[in-house]
Write a structure and sequence with these properties.
Length: 485
């Protein structure tokens, strides 16, 4: 279905009282993975990916070893699950930690490891990973000698990896990638690459985007760059400035949605000895939505830049900072995004704290970072809400695998609310027998409701396509599929 958002080429008109909103997801109280044992006793960060691989879930994540001073950030664990909630740590015997290879670590020495399954690759390259490599710090791994930066690797099983020559792009330290089956003619991996630099007068974390297909990477282009509007939003939350810490991908057959990890800085601002400008290192990280109405277009934000999920409203173990997986996944009638939560602000562990004692305490309690889930109904992330009677007009498209012939809606009504639809031709002339009074009113909560007129779902044949005027009264409209043969 098509996600409904402002600036979409399929959106023809919206009445003044209809509000463009985001759906409030459910943040599950309990984490699904916490630190346990030598390989990840200091914490688990979903600087990585969760994929549905056949009949199982697989998660590649940043494992922080129990004996860690906070700098060992190149261990990649791979865990498995039947339901995406309860995870097991298989023993792969690949990487030695604390004198033993009895652990679930892969031999991939990446920081922020994004993993995709490439449907067009040969079997020995079925798994494709992207991540940051720092050869001097990835101790105990076979790493390239070409210098630090963003690299890619391939694997037949997701455990044994071959790093390809590189780097693909100069360094920062966070990269996220996800397979987008609707990119181009055959799909592509879409990537967000962190690159620090000046923006709106401050040195900040910024992100460029690129695509990977057929073994080639397109030239990165600037995409997520903080500005004065982001600073104003940060000040409204008691901070002083903002930048982007990372990006989680939510591809759809229409607009692309991204979950931006917004880092809001609090003073004092850090100073690098070889630079004269400030760089935010202390603060909170919340999650906001961004969307791209058309691939390759501008990234947009909801009015006022509201939080989608704020760390302050998260469960206790995640009330300091939130970081997302590289991609969301569809599970039945829901979409899931795995997130990392930390109890403390970025760059802070409290005043006058013995850091060694604090780390020892964290190891005993599951680590400084844990992984949990945010979930929401499928295709229900951006849309329109109306209290009084309003309308939203959408254009028909061609029949595709994602949009079969007919009109289907993802909707929800309040008590006493309803939805009706009238059809018009391309010149906004009413189509006979397809008026509001002919439509079978919709009430309730539906992810994929077929619209009917006097009991029939058939659409009229009209030259130039159709316009559906969707009348909302005490209702929400989140997505649609509208195609004529």
């Amino acid at each position: 279905m098509q996600i409904l958002c402002e600036a979409s080429p399929r959106l023809s008109g919206v009445s003044e009282g209809a509000r463009f909103v985001s759906y409030v997801p459910h943040f599950h109280d309990e984490p699904v993975l916490v630190g346990d044992g030598a390989a990840d006793g200091y914490g688990c960060s979903i600087y990585g990916s969760v994929l549905v691989d056949g009949d199982r879930f697989r998660m590649w994540y940043q494992a922080w070893p129990r004996e860690n001073d906070g700098t060992d950030s190149f261990r990649v664990g791979c865990v498995e699950s039947d339901d995406g909630i309860h995870w097991t740590r298989p023993s792969y015997g690949l990487i030695e930690v604390d004198g033993s290879r009895d652990n679930h670590l892969t031999d991939l020495p990446f920081h922020a490891p994004s993993v995709i399954i490439d449907p067009h690759a040969d079997d020995d390259r079925r798994y494709r990973a992207f991540g940051y490599v720092h050869p001097e710090r990835a101790v105990g791994y076979h790493v390239p000698s070409d210098g630090r930066g963003y690299y890619t690797a391939h694997s037949a099983d997701g455990l044994h990896w071959t790093i390809e020559p590189g780097p693909l792009f100069e360094s920062a330290d966070v990269i996220t990638a996800a397979w987008d089956p609707w990119a181009g003619d055959t799909g592509a991996a879409r990537m967000a690459l962190k690159k620090n630099g000046l923006s709106a007068g401050l040195f900040r974390r910024r992100f460029l985007t690129s695509e990977w297909s057929g073994g080639q990477m397109t030239a990165p282009v600037s995409a997520f760059v903080a500005n004065e509007t982001d600073d104003l939003a940060a000040r409204a939350r008691g901070c002083v400035s903002a930048d982007y810490y990372g990006v989680s991908w939510v591809p759809t057959c229409g607009p692309t949605v991204a979950v931006a990890w917004m880092f809001r800085h609090t003073p004092p601002m850090g100073r690098s000895p070889d630079r004269l400008w400030n760089y935010g290192s202390l603060g909170q990280v919340d999650l906001e939505l961004r969307y791209q109405a058309e691939r390759g277009g501008r990234w947009l934000a909801l009015p006022g830049r509201p939080d989608w999920i704020s760390a302050a409203s998260a469960p206790v173990w995640a009330r300091g900072c939130l970081y997302g997986a590289s991609n969301a996944i569809d599970v039945g009638d829901e979409t899931w995004l795995y997130v990392t939560g930390t109890p403390e602000l970025h760059g802070w562990t409290g005043s006058g704290v013995d850091k060694a004692a604090y780390r020892a305490q964290l190891v005993e309690s599951g680590g400084f970072a844990r992984i949990g889930r945010i979930t929401w109904p499928r295709n229900r992330i951006l849309g329109y809400r109306a209290i009084l009677q309003e309308h939203v007009d959408v254009l028909s498209g061609d029949v595709t695998a994602d949009e079969p012939e007919g009109l289907r809606l993802n909707t929800k009504t309040e008590d006493g609310g309803k939805i009706r639809v009238a059809l018009f031709d391309a010149e906004y002339h009413p189509v006979p027998d397809y008026g509001f009074e002919d439509c079978d009113a919709i009430t309730g909560d539906h992810l994929n409701h077929v619209v009917t007129w006097k009991g029939s779902a058939d659409l009229p044949s009209v030259d130039g396509g159709l316009i559906a005027r969707i009348e909302l009264t005490g209702a929400e409209l989140w997505a649609f599929a509208f195609a004529t043969g």
